[in-house]
Amino acid sequence: xxxxxxxxxxxxxxxxxxxxxxxxxxxxxxxxxxxxxxxxxxxxxxxxxxxxxxxxxxxxxxxxxxxxxxxxxxxxxxxxxxxxxxxxxxxxxxxxxxxxxxxxxxxxxxxx
Length: 112
Fold this sequence. Notes:
This protein is of the alpha+beta class. Helices cover about 50% and strands about 10% of the residues. A hairpin with a 2-residue loop joins β2 (about 85-90) and β3. The chain is elongated, with a radius of gyration of 20 Å. The mean pLDDT is about 90.
């Protein structure tokens, strides 16, 4: 049986209730955009499993991509608030931010 739709008056629209505030939707969209790349998904999952921060050189070896390309991916993940970076000499070490919001942590966990 088909649902009966309400009769609408022409030119009169009703607003719908938003499930989440706009700022939170923007935050989630930023995270999802950062994760919309297969290499970045793999990087995040590597960081999720790693007990220690991971050196940028380890990602160049793992993915057979150049250091500037890895740095580009890491910049996207940093902009989305997913990773922290620490410089030590000429190398940069990355880790997932330890206190990610629960909803962001669930998104990352769902990738595995």
